[in-house]
């Protein structure tokens, strides 16, 4: 299914799966795709960053289980005087992005896409087709997020004070420039 996705778009989907697992969710939702888009370099990450979004604040707006990324409990570590975000940044700088991420368990089932995430993927494909693009980029995925209707991703964007119509215009401009 993902053979027409650019490497950045594929990476965003992989990162979204990781985010859903970290959050203790049983499915990949639109908000996980949004965070995946911010993590993967490309038109979507550039657009989101320029709109003032950053990974940590966006992640904080998402529903999650008891533990944060990598199964580490930031609140429990804070009681010991350990700032998990600082440790994660230092580990990423020294060892590469995702150094503290939980290792994949062999034989573990893949996490499915929730209905809102499926709508995002369909919207991304539709957007690429409408513009005659042969590949689906991270920008197309972001348009899929923005056009998916009521979703956790749009809620997170609005809570962050993001001007969604301006974000959509910016990513469309970037897609036209890249064509």
Question: What labels would you give this structure?
Answer:
Double Clp-N motif, mainly alpha, 10 helices, single chain, 179 residues, globular
N-to-C series of helices and strands: HHHHHHHHHH
Shape: globular
| Oligomer kind | single chain
Number of helices: 10
Uncertain stretches of 5 or more adjacent residues: 102-106
Query: What is the CATH superfamily label?
Result: Clp, N-terminal domain
Estimate nothing, just give the exact number of structural domains: 1
Could you give a short account of the major beta sheet? none
**CATH class designation:** Mainly Alpha
CA radius of gyration is 16 Å
Question: Under CATH, the topology is which?
Answer: Double Clp-N motif
Task: Write a concise synopsis of the structure shown.
60% of the residues lie in helices and 0% in strands. It is mostly helical and 179 residues long.
Describe the structure.
- 60% of the residues lie in helices and 0% in strands.
- With 179 residues, the chain is mainly α.
- It has a single domain, classed as Double Clp-N motif, CATH 1.10.1780.
- The longest helix has 16 residues.
- It starts with 6 loop residues before the first helix and ends with a helix.
- About 3% of the residues have low confidence.
């Amino acid at each position: 299914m993902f053979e027409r996705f650019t490497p950045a778009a594929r990476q965003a989907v992989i990162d979204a799966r990781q985010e859903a697992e970290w959050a203790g969710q049983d499915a990949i939702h639109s908000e996980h795709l949004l965070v995946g888009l911010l993590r993967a370099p490309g038109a979507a990450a550039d657009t989101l960053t320029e709109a003032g979004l950053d990974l940590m604040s966006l992640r904080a707006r998402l529903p999650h289980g008891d533990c944060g990324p990598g199964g580490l409990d930031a609140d429990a570590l804070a009681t010991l005087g350990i700032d998990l975000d600082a440790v994660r940044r230092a580990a990423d700088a020294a060892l590469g992005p995702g150094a503290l991420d939980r290792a994949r368990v062999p034989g573990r089932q893949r996490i499915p896409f929730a209905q809102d995430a499926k709508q995002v993927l369909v919207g991304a494909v539709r957007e690429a087709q409408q513009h005659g693009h042969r590949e689906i980029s991270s920008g197309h995925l972001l348009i899929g997020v923005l056009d998916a209707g009521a979703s956790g991703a749009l809620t997170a964007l609005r809570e962050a004070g993001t001007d969604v119509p301006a974000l959509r215009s910016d990513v469309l401009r970037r897609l036209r420039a890249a064509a």
